[in-house]
Prior knowledge:
The protein has twelve helices and 19 strands. It is globular, with a radius of gyration of 27 Å. By secondary structure, the chain is α/β, with parallel strands linked by helices. 36% of the residues are buried. It has helices at 34-45, 59-72, 85-92, 105-116, 140-152, 172-187, 203-213, 265-273, 288-297, 333-338, 362-368, 374-381; strands at residues 12-19, 22-26, 49-53, 78-80, 98-102, 122-125, 131-134, 164-168, 219-222, 226-227, 232-233, 236-239, 256-262, 280-284, 302-305, 319-320, 326-327, 329-330, 340-347. The strands form five sheets. It has a seven-stranded mixed sheet with strand order 9-12-13-8-7-14-15, sandwiched between helices. A six-stranded mixed sheet has the order 4-3-2-5-6-17, with helices on both faces. Strands 1-19 form a two-stranded antiparallel sheet. Helices cover 33% and strands 21% of the residues. Helix 5 (140-152) packs across helix 6.
Amino acid sequence: RVSLPLSQQPGSAWVQPDPLGVVLIIGPWNYPFQLLVSPLMGAIAAGNCAILKPSEHAPATSRVVAELIEATFAPEYIAVLEGSVETAQALLAQKFDHIFFTGGTRVGQIVMEAAAKHLTPVTLELGGKSPCIVDGATDLRVAARRIIWGKFVNAGQTCVAPDYLLVQEEVKPALLEHLQATLREFFGDAPQQSPDLARIVNQQQFDRLVALLEGGAGDVITGGQHDRSDRFIAPTVIDNASWDAPVMKEEIFGPLLPVLTYRRIEEAIAQINARPKPLALYLFTTDAALQDKVLSATSSGSVCLNDVFLQVAVWDLPFGGVGQSGIGAYHGKASFDTFSHQKSVLKKPLWLDLGWRYAPYTEKFRLLLPLSKLGFLKKVIGLS
Length: 384
């Protein structure tokens, strides 16, 4: 409910969420179940029908999702269309009431262009190069463990993974030692044999990542091994990375971690702000003033202080990007809002019908004119 001004009394007003209608949800390949079913939860909660398009690059999961949906919902309410790019193109040519897309920026532009032809609103969950700042005022061992975990889970194929490190110059040598020690602790001296490391999703992505690695990325201080037959790339830390290197020109989306340095935090902020707004930003420091400075001087979809990744798991925090990293947000109540139209409603009774708003107006305006003069108002309230 919302309040009414005196001029609108008697009456009542409220905001009533309405379902948007039929929504299209296009899922990615990196978390092919969660990133399809999670937005579906919000769509169902808000009362919509939905068509799901799983990623063709995760065919086994696509089939499981299709079987589960077909066994659970009548197809006129929730349906799954499996298929390749042609299927997605055919769907995008249709008129929907909302499109929810998770994936890369390039395909996100295609989705938005197709939606614009029908004036269909979109939610775009994209990505970008999420920076991780490491200040000297932190526990470097803990920072290294959390960074290694967040970067190399799912072989780095995570939209909110730390894409690169911005490390205060004085503490870089110590941090690099902790990063190397943590990699050995987590995955051993033969990481390809570790049961805890994922593989690259397909040969195309593997070749793209190897090209970044071999394209003058910097000095590989640990990792770098790769095996195309196994689609394996070892967790790799790259020192002395250059802002102009290919690995710094696009979202990595793989197990490569470039390390750059800064002397003053203003330099780091300037480098971040010179690039498209990231989906996430990470900062390791115990300096509260520095935390406030970075929060106020940068723009990103989300921020996590002294950890990585975990802001996504707080269901009451809206999750989404800003600028090129996305449009709109979801999770928790934000999912319900994303798939709802907030309809404004005003309700008036019939028993009081004042005639001041109806024509003819000439005589009424003549009578009301004195009310607009301050002198008359003073007399009314007893000031003169």
